[in-house]
Amino acid sequence: MEKDVNTQWHPAFCSAVRLELREDAEYLNYTNEYNINTMPLKMDMLIIKKAKNVEIKNPIGKIFRGHNILEYKSPEDSMNLDTFMKVKGYACLYKANEAHIDDIMLDDITITLVRESKPKKLFRWFKENDYNIAEVYRGIYYATKEKEFPVQVLVSQRLSKKDQKWLTLLTRKMDKEEMKRAVHQINALVYKDEKDQADSIMQVVLKENGDVFDLLKEDGTMCQALRELMGKEIHEEAEKLAQDLAQDLAQKLAQKLAQKKIYQLVERKMISVEEAALQFNVSVEEFLENVNG
Fold it and tell me: CA 125, CA 115: separation in Å to the nearest integer?
């Protein structure tokens, strides 16, 4: 996966997928990065293992089998034949890395490619190479061919904002109404782990759509919702400030006590006051003020 050093799209994507599939969380196991044993290779992709005989409720998981490899491309990254071949190669390596022969069956692996806009050249290649292409749900395309891994392509700008309410937030084209939706969705979450995942998404949303968020702050009807959204961040900042202040006070107190100890040596004429002040890199006047304060 190509990396954008400025915006952390991949962690936000992983969080969005978890939130989309939270209804079936007990049947799913997530791996954000996968190391190929005995090989100097790390797959920077999301791998989801699904329990047997479970059908995922969210449409993005309908295609899932036992082992599902997901590749995400941020808005500025291209998705082309090389992308598909890389993920297909990783799927083969993932199968080859099994502990015992046929622990992972070839027909138990799926590939999911995710991008905001439709990868038209890749779709053309699929058609030219006898893949059957079908949009089975809004923005969810299946590319299938006999004796090949089942593939789905999620075009996030076409996804249903009702059924895929989190993946559709991964954009830099958000308007004011979409920002309102993001705020209300996050405020509606109850559990801490889900709120933490939403925070990861919101960091990307604000970084890429900060001007829209500024407009929202001017909307009087959103004041309460924004206070709820920013409440956690404000609380964390206040805690950090309190900790920093406590640490600073402790350091100052320790320094003052140390200066008073050294001043006892001055009183015993064992060292001069100038030498004592030099020990603390302060002037004589400041040293005397500290020990007498």
Answer: 17
156: in domain: yes
Q: How far apart are CA 41 and CA 44, in angstroms?
A: 9
Which residue has 């209300």 as its token pair?
184
pLDDT digits (tens, 9 = 90+) for 89-142: 999 988 988 888 888 999 999 999 999 999 999 999 999 999 999 999 999 999
d(CA 127, CA 153): 14
pLDDT in tens, 228-255: 666 566 556 556 666 767 777 777 777 7
Token pair in block for residue 197: 């995942």
Count of beta carbons in the 10 Å neighbourhood of residue 272: 12
- 42 and 154 in a single domain? The answer is yes
Integer-rounded Cα radius of gyration of the chain: 28
How far, in Å, CA of 36 to CA of 33, rounded?
10
Residue 140 belongs to a domain? yes
Distance CA 249, CA 252 (A): 5
C-alpha to C-alpha distance for 25 and 31, rounded to whole angstroms = 13
Pairing type for strands 132-137 and 140-144 reads antiparallel
Count H helices, E strands: the chain?
A: 9, 9
| pTM attached to this predicted model | 0.75
Q: Which pLDDT band, with edges at 50, 70 and 90, does 3 fall under?
A: very low
Report the number of distinct structural domains present in the chain.
Answer: 2
With H, G, I as helix, E, B as strand and everything else as coil, classify residue 187.
helix
46 strand-pairing partners: 70
Separation between Cα atoms, residue 225 and residue 227, nearest integer Å:
5
Q: What size, in residues, is the chain?
A: 293
